[in-house]
Amino acid sequence: MINSTWWVGTAFGAALTGVLLSPAIFPVNLGWRLTFALGAILGLGILLVRRFVPESPRWLMMHGRFDEADQVVSEIEQKVMHEGKLDKLPEPEGKLSIRPQGTVTFGQIAKTMIKTYPKRSLLGFSLMIGQAFLYNAITFSYGLIFTTFMKVPNSSVPFYMIAFAIGNIVGPLTLGRLFDTVGRRKMISSTYIISGVLFAITGWLFAQGILNALTLTICWSIVFFFASSGASSAYLTVSEIFPLETRAMAIAFFYAIGTAVGGSLTPLFFGFLIQTHSTWIVFYGFLLGAVLMVAAGIVAIFFGIDAEGKSLENIAQPLSAEGDQSSQQEEAGSLPGSKNASLQ
């Protein structure tokens, strides 16, 4: 659900763009500068907020900062007990002994993804490429499609984007909890396949000339009601199905590859399609995006991980774990001469 807040910013940005870029309100040479300035102000705000966000205790332990990790966990426990009016919390289930390794090399990351978890890597690539193509196909060509085929004035396009953004917000807010109750595999595969099928149907209706600006916006909002949940789950998936030490790099790695393969050339590709002024040629581009989404959904059916309700250590054993601890041990041992930490 957190990932969907990106679209809250998009909705506000679209609304402000409609005002700031209106020549009737601001001069042309001033409006776009104000728009960029607002972005910079928001960026500075994020830097300030980050100072009050506690570091991950898992990350701290993996890097040998045990006292800081213990302090963060203690603060969280105290807050939970205070808000829940509890005298004590349940005892942790099991222990895991680790030997902190510090920085993980790219070689270790590549070996982990390709050799140890090849099926999970295929899953990550499929999900990222599918959502990257679909989103870049629409977000970067949205205005061109509306101005070229629907004859919508440039000044009105941002207001259609607001409705589109709302669909992207409501989807994860409505379906997000089902990824923990119904299950990751079922929800990821279904959101990808449903959005792919609906995207193909919308493309066909567009090619037939049945849709106008309003109905196309409604159709896309419905498509991305599901697609936004699926795209959010792609980031969730690659962050939790690999060992703890590789989480940050896994997100960056799969995002970079997925965007490079599925998204980097998509705006240029659709720009060429739209220049033909043929709705059928544009439809074939939409159809390609639909196929990629459905294919990713099928991959999720076979290679998806049932990660709901499980700790990250149970989904993928940390690289720094000592010995074979695929199952939780009752007691965590210590190796002579090593400084161990116990994740509880």
Automatic annotation (TrEMBL):
Query: Which keywords appear in this protein's UniProt record, sorted alphabetically?
Result: Membrane, Transmembrane, Transmembrane helix
TM ranges are 7-26, 32-53, 122-145, 157-175, 187-207, 213-238, 250-274, 280-305
Database matches in SUPFAM superfamilies:
MFS general substrate transporter
Entry-linked Pfam families: Sugar_tr (PF00083)
Q: Where in the cell is it found?
A: Cell membrane
Region feature Disordered, mapped onto this chain: 320-344
Q: State if Membrane is listed as a keyword.
A: yes
Q: Write out the coiled-coil annotation as residue ranges.
A: none
Gene Ontology CC: plasma membrane
In this protein, which residues make up the domain named Major facilitator superfamily (MFS) profile?
1-308
Membrane topology of the entry: Multi-pass membrane protein
Q: Which GO molecular function entries does the Swiss-Prot or TrEMBL record give? A: carbohydrate:proton symporter activity
Record InterPro entries: MFS_dom, MFS_sugar_transport-like, MFS_Sugar_Transporters, MFS_trans_sf
Xref: Gene3D superfamilies = MFS general substrate transporter like domains
Compositionally biased tracts (Polar residues): 323-344
Highest taxon of the lineage: Bacteria
Q: Which PANTHER family match?
A: PLASTIDIC GLUCOSE TRANSPORTER 4 (PTHR48022:SF2)
Task: Report the family membership.
Answer: Belongs to the major facilitator superfamily. Sugar transporter (TC 2.A.1.1) family.
Protein's recorded name = Major facilitator superfamily (MFS) profile domain-containing protein
Species annotation: Dictyobacter kobayashii
Provide the taxonomic classification. Answer: Bacteria, Bacillati, Chloroflexota, Ktedonobacteria, Ktedonobacterales
